[in-house]
Amino acid sequence: MIVQKTFRRAIQTAAAAAFLATTVLSGIAHAGPTLDKINQRGAIKVGVGTTPGFFAPDSNGEWQGFFIDFGRALSIAVFGTPDKVEFTSSSPQQRLPALQSGEFDILLSGVTVTATRAFKLGFHFGPTIFYDGQGILVRKDLGVAKAADLDGATIGAQSGTTGELNVADFFRKTGKTFTPVTIEDTGQFIDALESGRVDAITQDSSDLVGKRTQLKNPDDYVLLPERLSKEPLAPAIAGGDDRWLELVNWTVNATIQAEEWGITSANVDEFLKSEDPAIQRFLGVDPSFGNDLGLDPKWAYNIIKTVGNYGEIFERHLKPLGWERGYNSLWTDGGLLYSPPFR
Amino acid sequence: MTAALSRILTTLRSGLFGTRANTLVTVATVLLLSQVVPPLVRWAVLDATFGGDAAACTRAGACWAFVAAKLRFILFAFYPPGLQWRPALVILLLAAILVASALPRLWGRPLLVAWPLTILACWLLMQGAFTATPIPSNQWGGLPVTLFVWAVCFAAATPIAVLLALARRSTLGGLRTFSVLYIELMRGTPMVGILYVAMLILPMALPDSLSVDKMLRAIVMVTLFWAAYIAEVIRAGLQAIPPGQSEAATALGLGYWRTQRLVVLPQALRIVIPGMVNLAIGFLLATSLLAVIGIFDLLNAARASAADPNWLGFYNEAYLVVAAVYFVICFGASRYSQWLEGKLAGGRTCPRTA
């Protein structure tokens, strides 16, 4: 972004070296489970990024955003209050080594789940909380409704990213032509589009939605529905603490399950009177379920009461930026969100 | 009155159009300015929005309302707004000690005592000492962090640098080799690499029970890194002192340390002050690299301030504010350096370096 090309390369080299050293040393230094450290410290250390809507500080210096609320939910699951969590911004180059070194207990920074990260780097991933993918933002006056209709368009992509390769693959598949324009700095995408130097730009759709709102006339541009790549963003933790992983899993699941049942922060108290045994278990009306898990029986109730269900979190932070639910709808609405049963 | 005016005009004419080359440069500059200034004025003043919220801002002009809303965050980042007087006081304290250190007539023992005390006071203030809730360093940010890291690291690195410079000129082979290796290793490493070591390697090298604050780790590593650069500048000063000085001191019966402390260093350090100020300016700008390990220095805070969905994308305005702050400090330091050079060169205490 603001870093120069050579500088970025220096960072990557340094990060790679640090990472290598980390993997060599980590076997020696870290044996204690993450959750012990969290309890001892009295706070969860969360690595985040800075993308509008997902994680950004507000004018009072409070972190706000979609991923931030999941961090607060975790704090409730562990400590019963939403504020025992420290958010620290970390760059994409250093976040994984930092997680490995124990600087963070969890990354809620939009890490894409990949096989290499799971197998070779030894990270565990919680449930996907955001299904992202590479999108294409085009000028409306092109009259294009889907990506397959794009023919002969000039498309801006960030140099050196997988996005550049994905778009080439896509056009090879559709058999249409396009002219690639590589853009070095992410801030220049808007200028390129507004000046008419490119007809369309391609990046992860989470970036494109933010960029669209920064355009002079956002309504003149449209994000095409196709996704050229799969970018499932999930919480990432270091291997070696199964209980911590399960806490992360079921905290996310609780927000999804609550939405499925229609439980919101506003009506959760009415659901306490529900006759449904599953809901009674979920909300801790029947405390034996929570006690069996070794959790505060009210943990799910507290999460929903404080941060709300998945849909509420989405509406609060991403809807104002123009996000549609899309893949991030419940399975019952044709989306991909599905919580295993709470029993 | 008219005589003065015509004198000014003559000076201007000879300065701007005196020779053919001057005329060419003048015309080219005016042409360039005529292209650059009007759009800039239109953006910054005529089309700008000075109040209201983000909705009131058009993308055509600058949104100074953004700066008004976000200035607190850019300056103090995550520090609790209720306790904001603490980082504000830190800025004042650091500014006071820097100004005091800049005045030659205050150079002396009291200043050497004042420095560690000021640093300690700043650290306690930032930490939220004597309040119910301590402020962890991940909530520090903005200008106090930039100034604090800069001042502390530079102040702590200087004594180390003096020892390194002396060691590099030492006749003890082992000591000299160590100093050379250290300095070359540090100068051959990018600062980003040093910060990664502070962030990632140090926590693993330390035992689990001993967890050192990230800010402190960064400060320690940056201090060690800067010491190598300062040491080379100081070595240049040491080399400028003619050997006759220390030979004379030895002849008077002074030992090594007293020779250095009373004869060599006072002269050498005076010579290198402009070089040190030069380094200090570079180091101030280098503190923005702290962003790569997630510390919210001034620049990083400004960048984050434009990611707020309520105030999305006013990067130009945010960066302009930060540029102005950096410029004021750096310009002040560089003018000071010039002034000091002149003063020391003309002063009676000037060492004969010939």
Automatic annotation (TrEMBL), chain A:
InterPro entries reported in the protein's UniProt record: Bact_solute-bind_prot3 (IPR051455), Solute-binding_3/MltF_N (IPR001638)
PANTHER family named in the record: AMINO ACID ABC TRANSPORTER PERMEASE, AMINO-ACID ABC TRANSPORTER-BINDING PROTEIN YHDW-RELATED
Extent of the signal sequence: 1-31
Keywords: Signal, Transport
Domain of life: Bacteria
Keyword Repressor listed: no
Name of the protein this chain belongs to: Amino acid ABC transporter substrate-binding protein
Any Pfam family hit: SBP_bac_3
Domain Solute-binding protein family 3/N-terminal: 43-286
Family that this chain belongs to: Belongs to the bacterial solute-binding protein 3 family.
UniProt cross-references to CDD domains, sorted A to Z: PBP2_BztA (cd13692)
UniProtKB/TrEMBL annotation, chain B:
Membrane topology, record value: Multi-pass membrane protein
Transmembrane segments: 24-45, 85-104, 111-135, 147-167, 188-206, 218-238, 271-296, 316-334
Matching SUPFAM superfamilies: MetI-like (SSF161098)
Keywords: Cell membrane, Membrane, Transmembrane, Transmembrane helix, Transport
Gene3D superfamilies found in the cross-reference section: MetI-like (1.10.3720.10)
InterPro entries attached to this UniProt entry: AA_ABC_transptr_permease_3TM, ArtM/GltK/GlnP/TcyL/YhdX-like, MetI-like, MetI-like_sf
Subcellular location: Cell inner membrane; Cell membrane
Span of domain ABC transmembrane type-1: 143-333
Keyword Transport carried by entry: yes
Similarity comment: family membership: Belongs to the binding-protein-dependent transport system permease family. HisMQ subfamily.
Name assigned to this protein: Amino acid ABC transporter permease
